[in-house]
Amino acid sequence: MAKKASTFKNMTLTLFLITVVAGISLGYINEVTKGPIAKAKLERTTNALKNVLPTFDNDPLQDILKIKAEEVKDSIEFYPAFQEGVRVGTAVVASSEKGYNGLIRLMVGFEPNGSIIDIRVLEQKETPGLGTKIKGEKFKRQFRGKNPSAFNLKVKKDQGEVDALTGATITTRAFSEAVQLAYDKMIQNQSQTGSDE
Amino acid sequence: MNEPVNQKQNFIKGIIKDNPVFVMLLGMCPVLGVTSSAFNGLGMGIATLFVLLMSNIVVSLIKTQIPAKVRIPAFIIIIASFVTIVEMVLEAFIPVLYEQLGIFIPLIVVNCLILGRAEAFASKNNLLSSVVDALGMGIGFTIALVVLGATREILGNGSLFDFPLTSEDSSTLILFILPPGAFIALAYLSVGFNKLTAKMN
Q1: pLDDT in tens, A4-42
Q2: Whether the predicted interface score ipTM is above 0.90
Q3: How far apart are CA A117 and CA A88, in angstroms?
Q4: pTM of the full predicted structure?
Q5: At CB < 8 Å, which residues of chain A contact B?
Q6: Which of A138, B50, B123, B196 is 20–30 Å from A95 (CA)?
Q7: Long-range pairs for A149-153 at CB < 8 Å and ≥24 separation?
């Protein structure tokens, strides 16, 4: 089992060969998984839409409207939902970068009058067991049916009405901020997203 | 080096005598970071087991072709490639698991358990021994992560594999979910494990 001598030529050649093989196989796997990954992402959005909106019969993915916001890097997405031509709600995807570990992306479903139907966390990197509880029933329950025009979307520590998660006030703040942003942008762009079109 | 390796002992050592977590204290970064729940521990353990197995196989096969002075970078490239493959395959075909483990998977690259086995075992032994070694070590690692994750989840969250054991509002020892709790739980489990194995001998 003699090892190859560590000459300059041997070392360069070996590393070169290994990187080439690694590069080619990664490229191949990337090609193979590209389709399924895109499909899985789309499915995730569709599932989230079904979760935060009442039954609809249009394709919100077709009617999507994207708006650039100054507050966050990601654009805000609006998905209008219709049932037999009548507006039944809007799902808004908004984010906050002030989470404990950065980005938190949410999909918030609003009724035509602005009340929150349900919220779904799309992306988060919060501390498992603490911040990740924003995905839990118990936390989200307090937002359902509330209208942000009458419900102060700030944690109680900041004189708001949101019950912060124990040990995850920062996460709760970011979460509430994203919900507020979703609501504000929906109101601001009512002319394009409003129910009277 | 050429004496035949007892494969049964080779397999068992990864689980008990040389358990990577409780005895060798390897790969502490994922061990402490991921194990806030039993499910996370299990997922991370299995992903690590897969990468460890693949990297041990490849390293064992090409060990004579790698000049000694560049062996570490060569191993790292091999390991990093497999980690990326695991990540892409998970995202494409098991999106549920990917959502849970997504951010932990890149951490496997820096898990010194994998590099350690490539360097200390696979680069000196034949293919069969390396496979058995990877399986033993990987399973030992997975068991340790699940036990640690379960301990922390029960104490800190009052649930096991997301199945609630206490009511939603009861107060739990949140400390165990937090990073310091990981150190405390690991230390006690490690003491217990070593006491137990010492007694068995």
Answers
A1: 777 888 888 888 999 999 999 999 999 999 898 888 888
A2: no
A3: 11
A4: 0.75
A5: 1-7, 10-11, 14-15, 18-19, 22, 25-26, 29-30, 32-33, 35-37, 40, 43-44, 125, 127-130, 138, 166-167
A6: A138
A7: A149/A114, A149/A183, A153/A177, A153/A179, A153/A180, A153/A183
